[in-house]
Amino acid sequence: MEVHRHSHYNCHKERKKKWKHYTWEFLMLFLAVSCGFLAEYKLEHTIEHNREKQYARTLYEDLQADTAALRAALVDNSFSQAKIDTFRQLVHLKAINQVPPGTWYYFGRFGTRVSNVALQEATLQQLLSSGGLRYFKRLNVVDGIANYCQSVRIMKEIVNFQVALLNDLTNARNKIFDAYYLDEIMDFDIAQEKIDSFKRQSFPLLTSKRNDFIQYANLCQAKHSGQKVLQYKMNEALNSAAKLIVLLKKEYRLE
Question: What is the pLDDT of residues 224-240, one digit of tens each?
């Protein structure tokens, strides 16, 4: 009987040891899996954070270039609008032979000038096409990007309208002017003295029919209306870009 009790005691003790051993192994395995999961989560979080900051920096640099391009386009657009206005007024108020041909050439050339903006869109396109926008955890930044994208999209639609009108404008212009004489006056940085001299020249007009001038002026009016809307939308895009630049600089401590 003594032996039996001793054997039963030993078995009970052995089972207790095994239970503790299994429990300990389970805890160790659980801790190992948990630590591995946490480490992987931490690594993934670090990678995403680094990508977020990298995207923020490249977008920040692109936006700086975009704001410069938009400001230049706004100046170009305003300059063209004023010249188109002058051309339309001349057609409305003056007889064709009352205005020096060079003056018709100078103001008439702006009807076919398209104000386009070369934006740096590589980062934006990558964010939108590859799902990279998910890396941005700050909702104010996501909203800022969305606002800028929308402004750019609408602006491009108006530019496309201008391009669609270009063929009709060019055909109407080519009934009046010999484009050969426009080459020397097409740039925007020409000295005023040269412009004044050009406007006094007696270049040959291909037609002196008033109706041809009116047809071209009417198309210029349609272009002018589009340019006014484009001016407004370019300002919207510029303001959206400027706000996003400030936001990115603040949130990601960019310089």
Answer: 888 899 999 999 999 99
